[in-house]
Amino acid sequence: MRVHVVSDVHGSVEALARAGDGADALICLGDLILFIDYDDHAQGIFPELFGADQAERFIALRTAKRFDEARAMSARLWASLEGDPREHIERIVRRQYESLFAAMPTPAYLTYGNVDLPRLWGDYLRPGLHVLDGQTVELGGLRFGFVGGGLRTQYRTPYEISDEEFAAKVEAVGEVDVLCCHIPPAVPELLYDVVARRYERGSEATLAAIRRTQPRYALFGHVHQPLHARTRIGRTECVNVGHFRGKGVPYVLQW
């Protein structure tokens, strides 16, 4: 059995269409939407609405951890739009989702990232695309568990949930061979982004579950340029499957 795993697709439609080549199945760990690109300031929802120069300034404020200024700037820009800002965002998100879900190879097993809008996914699913969150599926004799979303941060991305809600999904998954999450377990070297020069949030509940149940693998994304892309916790191989928008290459799991 050969499974390809991607995370942090962030609008990469053409690469996503090829991600399942040679695989029996594709697993996608979320973050399909591209809101803003820290490498190309002209790409994403934010620059489409406000321009690349404003995106560059916004990124600079967030990179400098001047979050109050970034939020104030963002609020001014959103207030400058005619109508409800949520309608503008949803219009562009829907366009991105339409292209991404049409390109998604099948069969595919998906869970949500912290920048996704779960309520919209059902409008774009088709046969062979399976969404799992706090749920499991058997592939090639191995049991895979899926936990989507992120934990609450000062970045306030769309699908951040409470620690308690996230932990409940980890508990619902139970013992599995492969634990698939968008965010990493709370291990510092897996959480530090060497380019953004900051720690992302990881899950203590996921870390506890790994220590307790010892799956073969724990797969995740979220941290685009991690200090360490993998580590071992007991017998569990913990692997950041890579920033798919940046690499364009899936992680291969074969057994």
Automatic annotation (TrEMBL):
Molecular function via GO: hydrolase activity
Calcineurin-like phosphoesterase domain: residues covered: 1-226
SUPFAM superfamilies, alphabetized: Metallo-dependent phosphatases
Domain of life (superkingdom): Bacteria
Name the record gives this protein: Icc-related predicted phosphoesterase
